[in-house]
Write a structure and sequence with these properties.
Number of helices: 5
Structural class: mainly alpha
Helix content: 55-70%
Order of helices and strands: HEEHHHH
Number of strands: 2
């Protein structure tokens, strides 16, 4: 999702009809999406989810703070829809990072 949104954001200032973006925001999503793919191949998904969750949660919450939200909109084009989605995905990613269930690597499953 991050990679798709980032690539789409390079050619449009609105993604999926409601999420505002700009070139800086799109580039960050491309980088984060690429890092996610790399983390998956290196079996570091938990660490990536923890980092991504904290980052998205921070960006989402900061949007709702007076003056900080205006600054974030000017720099990253974060609107209320983007902030809300960041909070939701951030919480899900953090939950995935702290989940203690054992992950079975499909390549080693019998």
């Amino acid at each position: 999702f991050l990679l798709v949104e980032g690539l789409w954001g390079m050619v449009s200032s609105v993604v999926f009809g409601v999420f505002t973006t700009n070139t800086t925001h799109a580039a960050i999503h491309i980088i984060l999406g690429t890092l996610g793919i790399i983390a998956g191949f290196r079996n570091n998904a938990r660490v990536y989810c923890g980092f991504l969750g904290a980052l998205l949660l921070l960006v989402g919450v900061l949007h709702f703070l007076p003056k900080v939200g205006d600054w974030m909109f000017n720099i990253l084009a974060v609107n209320t829809y983007v902030a809300a989605l960041n909070i939701i995905i951030g919480l899900i990613a953090i939950a995935a990072a702290i989940d203690k269930r054992e992950v079975i690597n499909p390549g080693t499953a019998a």
